[in-house]
Amino acid sequence: MLKNLRSKSLLVVLTVLGTFVDAQENRLGLYSLELSITPLSTVHIAPFQSLIGNGSQESKHYLSGLIRGTYKYNERWSFNAGIGYSTQKVITESAIVNPELERKIYSSNLHVLEIPLEARLSFLKYFYANAGPILHFQLNSNDLVDKQTGVGVTIGVSTKVPLSQRFAVSLSPHYKMYSLIPFQSENYHDRTHIFGVEVGLVFNIRK
What positions does the domain Outer membrane protein beta-barrel occupy (predicted)? Predict the structure, then answer.
């Protein structure tokens, strides 16, 4: 009887220990590194409230790249941080001063450093909903567009398809906005709205 009790006690201890180890492994999660670009996008630059007769901005040749590190907390939640860079050409049409005069058109560039912080919630098997703030800093001077330095936001849906135990391909349609909270706020501050598709290569650091 004592032997039986010891066997049962050992089984209970092993079961609890196994559950604890499994929980710790899930808690420790999976680390990964992702390199991505946004080759497809639609960009709109304008203040929240448009003014009649005001000048307009048109973005061309937007391209961004990002290096992102991800920590998988458990089966549903993961968190990531990264550093990225975006560049675009901006065509500015001057405000209407005199309807009889031709409006002037200017061309300039906009280069922005990004630091995104995101939370991801997984659903189904290979899909994620992600959202979070972006710290961003304009790297070049541009007198035609309000300075794009501040706190922005990003939200999107992504999928990750494994190629092997170490590598996967990611695809992420997303919306991103610069200057939700600009560091240098002005009346009718320009905001950059980006609807893009991000493509990336993921490397799993820890299995």
Answer: 37-142
Contact 17, 25 (CB under 8 A): no
How is residue 36 written in tokens? Answer: 């991505």
What are the extents of the domains in the chain? 29-204
Place of tokens 């089984």: 11
- For 148-165, give the DSSP string: --EEEEEEEEEEEEESSS
Query: pLDDT tens digits for 121-148?
Result: 999 888 999 999 999 999 999 888 889 9
Q: Which residue has the tokens 């990003």?
A: 154
Nearest Cα residue to 93 out of 83, 81, 105: 105
Helices assigned H by DSSP within 29-92? none
185: Cβ–Cβ under 8 A, 6 or more apart, which residues? none
Positive or negative torsion for Cα 182, 184, 185, 190: negative
* Integer Cα distance of 84 and 133 in angstroms: 13
CA atoms within 13 A on the CB side of 73: 10
Q: Which amino acid is at 54?
A: N
Q: Considering the entire predicted model, what is its pTM?
A: 0.76
Backbone angles phi, psi at 61, to 5 degrees: 60, 45
Which amino acid is residue 27, in one-letter code? R
pLDDT for 90 beyond 80: yes
**CATH number at 29-204:** 2.40.160.20
